């Protein structure tokens, strides 16, 4: 096993979009794989850019942990129970925009660092509450007080809670094909279609959430303005047997509603800061 410290692991004092954008935790590992130094890499799937280097494929997707976001605080307060003007921490543009839409009175401040660091900053009183992925908390064995955020109001990030196993093309099936979890793969692939169609980067407040039930997949996706004041949303049920085409149709609907325009606006606004 080879442990790789990426740029995203080292730079902790700047918002992610100020460093390099989507792929911050992935590029160095991709380069080592393409150089033949690594055969298989394990990633949080939501960190994987929609455009992948030629020669590398997602060989397996593991069973999904919770895709939900949670509001962590000393007392487990709900989002609607927060005091007016409360300070809430997050490093995600999506979460920040969704928080501003739900509660324009809140003060949203940047929160960086690993999970332990974020929880420590909360404990030190720098924030009234912080938003985290439930999957990360559970994987690390932490048990803070939290309130689950409704996925209809706070649509999760594409692929949140999913783990991807990347391998070189031609060897993926032999190396990791046996651990691929097809239901999670189908959900994750639906969500990634929206990333591909909308474009942008980690600065774009966009979300996509697919849930497989029987032979259908329910899909909910949205793109927001940075201030959360405007948003467009597409949702529907698609056939699991033809999930990619169904997701493309929904994503085209989102684009027609102005989703790509909002994404491009976000990129321009962040770039002009």
TrEMBL record:
SUPFAM superfamilies: Periplasmic binding protein-like II, Porphobilinogen deaminase (hydroxymethylbilane synthase), C-terminal domain
Alphabetical list of InterPro entries matching this protein: HemC, Porphobilin_deaminase_cofac_BS, Porphobilin_deaminase_N, Porphobilinogen_deaminase_C, Porphobilinogen_deaminase_C_sf
NCBIfam families per the UniProt record, alphabetical: hemC (TIGR00212)
GO cellular component: cytoplasm
Keyword Transferase: yes
Keyword Transferase carried by entry: yes
One GO process term, biological-process aspect: heme biosynthetic process
Any one GO MF annotation of this record: hydroxymethylbilane synthase activity
Enzyme Commission numbers on file: 2.5.1.61
Protein name: Hydroxymethylbilane synthase
Domain Porphobilinogen deaminase N-terminal: 2-169
One Pfam family linked to the record: Porphobil_deam
Ranges for domain Porphobilinogen deaminase C-terminal: 187-253
Residue intervals passing through the bilayer: none
Family note: Belongs to the HMBS family.
Essential cofactor(s): dipyrromethane
Alphabetic keyword roster: Porphyrin biosynthesis, Transferase
């Amino acid at each position: 096993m080879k442990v790789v410290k990426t740029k995203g692991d080292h730079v902790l004092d700047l918002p992610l979009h100020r460093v390099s954008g989507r792929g911050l935790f992935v590029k160095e590992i991709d380069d080592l794989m393409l150089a033949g130094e690594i055969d298989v890499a394990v990633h949080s799937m939501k960190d994987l850019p929609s455009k992948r280097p030629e020669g590398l494929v997602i060989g397996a997707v593991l069973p999904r942990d919770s895709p939900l976001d949670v509001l962590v605080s000393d007392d487990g307060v709900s989002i609607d129970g927060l005091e007016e003007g409360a300070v809430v921490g997050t490093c995600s543009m999506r979460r920040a925009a969704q928080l501003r839409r739900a509660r324009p009175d809140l003060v949203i401040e940047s929160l960086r660092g690993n999970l332990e660091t974020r929880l420590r900053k909360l404990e030190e009183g720098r924030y009234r509450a912080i938003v985290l992925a439930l999957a990360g908390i559970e994987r690390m064995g932490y048990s803070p007080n939290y309130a689950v955020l409704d996925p209809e109001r706070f649509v999760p990030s594409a692929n949140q809670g999913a783990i991807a196993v990347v391998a070189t093309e031609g060897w993926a099936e032999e190396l990791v094909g046996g651990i691929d979890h097809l239901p999670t793969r189908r959900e994750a692939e639906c969500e990634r279609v929206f990333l591909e169609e909308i474009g942008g980067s980690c600065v774009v407040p966009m979300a996509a959430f697919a849930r497989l039930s029987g032979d259908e997949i329910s899909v909910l996706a949205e793109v927001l303005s940075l201030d959360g004041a405007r948003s467009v949303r597409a949702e529907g049920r698609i056939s699991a047997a033809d999930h990619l085409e169904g997701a493309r149709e929904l994503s085209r609907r989102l684009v027609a509603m102005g989703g790509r325009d909002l994404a491009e606006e976000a990129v321009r606004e962040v770039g002009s800061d």
